[in-house]
Design a protein that fits this description.
alpha+beta; three-stranded antiparallel beta sheet; 18% strand
């Protein structure tokens, strides 16, 4: 192996090449460590034991409107979006019957 001398033309290529390789390795590690997991199989969400689903809507805005109706009736609720174009409205089990009645009159 021949050492690269200070006067050769390869001298100007070695430093940037090492920096590029180091940055590429750092970028690959960051993508692996902090990636969103796109393309990985995600387990299906477990059913909530504490909350009961009363409605499934296709738009988050509709779910927010139903949640406002429930809130006006004194029913605590939350929204879960398990997939694109799907929003579940969840309430506590003791409020489920009243919430389903309101959801039916809401037009879900």
């Amino acid at each position: 192996m021949v050492p690269i001398g200070a006067g050769s033309s390869l001298h100007y290529l070695v430093g940037p090449a090492i920096a590029f390789v180091a940055l590429a390795l750092l970028a690959a590690f960051m993508r692996w460590a902090f990636g969103s997991g796109y393309g990985r199989d995600r387990p299906a969400p477990a059913e909530d034991e504490l909350l009961t689903r009363i409605a499934t809507l296709s738009r988050r805005e509709s779910a927010l409107a139903l949640r406002a109706v429930l809130s006006d009736a004194g029913i605590r609720s939350t929204i879960r979006c398990p997939a694109a174009h799907r929003a579940d409205v969840l309430v506590f089990p003791e409020d489920a019957d009243r919430a389903r009645t309101l959801a039916a009159s809401f037009g879900t």
